[in-house]
Amino acid sequence: MIKKISRKLFLEKYPNFPVVNYYRNKYFYPEVYDSYILMVEAKSTIGLCKNTSIELSALLKLVGFGEMMFLGDTTSPWLLKEHYYKPVKEALAYLGEHKLSKSFNGALCVDEVDLPEFLKHVFWLVRCNGVVFMPHFTNKDFSAMIYICQYGNIHFSTLNKVTDDLFNEVIANTKLIFFDGKKCASYKVPHRVATRT
Question: pTM here?
Answer without folding.
Answer: 0.89
